Prior knowledge:
- The protein is of the alpha+beta class.
- The protein folds into five domains: 3-62, Orthogonal Bundle (Helix Hairpins), CATH 1.10.287.610; 85-315, D-amino Acid Aminotransferase, Chain A, domain 1 (2-Layer Sandwich), CATH 3.30.470.30; 320-402, CATH 2.40.50.140; 434-579, DNA polymerase, domain 1, CATH 1.10.150.20; 603-670, Rossmann fold, CATH 3.40.50.
- It has 25 helices and 24 strands.
- The strands form six sheets. Strands 14, 15, 16, 17, 18, 19 and 20 form a seven-stranded antiparallel sheet that branches. The protein has a five-stranded mixed sheet with strand order 2-13-10-3-9.
- Strand 15 (337-349) and strand 16 (352-358) form a beta hairpin.
- Helix 1 runs antiparallel to helix 2.
- The longest helix has 23 residues, at 3-25.
- The chain starts with a helix and ends in a 7-residue tail after the last helix.
- Mean pLDDT is 89; it is low at 588-593.
- The site of 2-(butylsulfanyl)adenosine has 15 residues, from strand 3, strand 8 and strand 13.
- Residues 81-83, 114, 116-117, 121, 137, 174, 226-227, 289, 308, 311, 313 line the site of 2-(butylsulfanyl)adenosine.
- InterPro entries: BRCT_dom, BRCT_dom_sf, DisA/LigA_HHH, DNA_ligase, DNA_ligase_AS, DNA_ligase_CS, DNAligase_adenylation, DNAligase_N.
Amino acid sequence: MSSSASERASRLRAEIGEHDHRYYVLDAPLISDAEYDRLFRELQAIEAEHPELVCSDSPTQRVGAAPLTGFATVAHRTPMLSLNNAFSDDEVAAFDRRVREGLAAEGEVSYVAEPKFDGLAVSLSYEQGVLLRGATRGDGSTGEDVTANLRTLRSIPLHLQGSGWPALLEVRGEVLMWRSDFERMNEQQRQKGEKEFVNPRNAAAGSLRQLDPRITATRPLRFVAYGVGAVAAGVLPATHWALLERLAAWGFAVAAERRRVSGLAALLACQREIGSRRATLPYDIDGVVYKVDELAAQERLGFVSRAPRFALAHKFAAAEALTEVLDIVLQVGRTGALTPVARLAPVFVGGVTVTNATLHNEDEVRRKDVRVGDTVVVRRAGDVIPEIVRVLPEKRPPTATAFVMAASCPVCGSQVVRQQDEAVARCSGGLYCPAQRRQALLHFASRRAMDIEGLGERLVEQLVEHDVVRTPADLYRLGLLALLNLERMADKSAGNLLAAIERSKQTTLARFIYALGIRNVGEATARDLARHFGSLDRLLAADETQLLQVPDVGPIVAQSIRQFLGEPHNREVIEQLRAAGVAWSEGEAVAPAASAPAVAGRSFVLTGTLPSLTRDAARQMLEAAGGKVSAAVSKKTDFVVAGADAGSKLQRAQELGVPIIDEARMLALLGGVEADR
Ligand code: IVH
């Protein structure tokens, strides 16, 4: 065995451990995913060549275990207790009184307040700083051995960092799924046609109790430490507050929302304050836990039956309530999506008065069978948008009326369309619909469309608000005076903007088509259309069969184009734009997009959720630069672009040794930077 391989391997392990901690615990990564993958693969390669170097706390061994047929049971060294709950201020006052009496305290008692995480409790046993076992709470005395699954969580250190840890240490805490991860995961479940989870808690529980740790490894679980169980051969700090800090130093995430306060009034204020920020926290919480700060005092107070006397969970008010559906109206979103929204008789739920609840889409209304006049259960979950949980059919009046999706847009009157395979109905008004104006104008002016420099979000906002600009054609009628009336608009910038608008008139047919913002028509399709038809008039006259002859135009795209161009308002705007002098040389040979040498002729596969682009947008960008995008990974694939929660394609790429890059790297390639492969 070469000692340099062994040294390199342990250096890599330490480095990867550090990056896991920075990424999953501190939320402050230092390196890109690609660099991380490179370190990881280097370690894998060394370990493959020198199997004797593999050790159980190597990051490569997080997912190592074979599927189980069942979980073994583990007896907890010290029981995992529950907490007494309080729902009112009076109950908290009674708790504080009992604590002061129990401690014969003269003045106010010092407490730590921290969120009550809505996940599931686990206990992690470390011996000599190495993670040996992880178990669920079970009945409090015995739980299930889920070590292999817990090892896949990158926020759980395989060995403790720093120093000063007891030789035996049980770390107690909660396994959670962040709401954003939960939503992304459910989206993927939906796409795969698999079962969705009801909430992050259930998703976390279901993910942790998988018999195959490889499945758990794909689930975005996190661990937060809130205390310790058994401790041997070591000393702990004197207070819970300091203990949390110690846990953080050993490599665990601990609640960022923790407060050290004295006395009842401060406790109640903490619960209100943390409660008010509940919706903005990345994870669900269902109350605030108060703990006597001094550990010696905790010990003196002891336990009654299965709950400590030194701690209390102050729960938030129930976030569900009953109310009546007064009406179901349609809201038009910025992309034309029509969302049915229930107008409700005002009801106080989860700390606010709710008068509206989203019903998401037509199918959802039908599935829940919500009708005007119904009595419903509304829930204000962790997020701010309240929703209808269910209808109470026994309370339905005979006059209750079912919802019907409108045939025309309530804002602009354009036709409402719902495409095959889409849950969402949309207004086809596009450029014309005021609800969609802002979005449409921004897209129209964007760099790859008409490229009107200086026409950004703030300006568009004002132009629409003051009703100066209704359609893109109005942009070409703007005068200096109208602009000078806007906020923060001086002579010079107004002049610059007018010049930019003037310059944009000379464009290409492809840009013009793209700028119209037809659904499903991205840059590449716009270019194909321009190349195929050669003139706008020929495109305007094309029927579905003719559209289908354009390379890469399928029935859905053809239908979008027909719908858009079939709308008289859109035709009008197009005519006004031409009349305003927007022009291109007809029949021009459409110049291909600036082809990026690092991309042109190479083949890509996209997988997972990219941080900023949709996969479709990424595909269009790659294709526009001359790349080829395929669905499956093969030996001929040049790059796999992987985002969060990438699955089998990523694995296949690793098996075949195909270079794996992240979105940032892909953008760099598009920008002309060559990849080292
Ligand atoms: S301390 C002896 N702290 O609440 C005290 N528990 O009812 C033991 N929980 O299953 C628990 N957040 O999973 C503690 N900040 C927190 C907590 C917390 C959530 C859960 C815990 C346990 C349940 C107890």
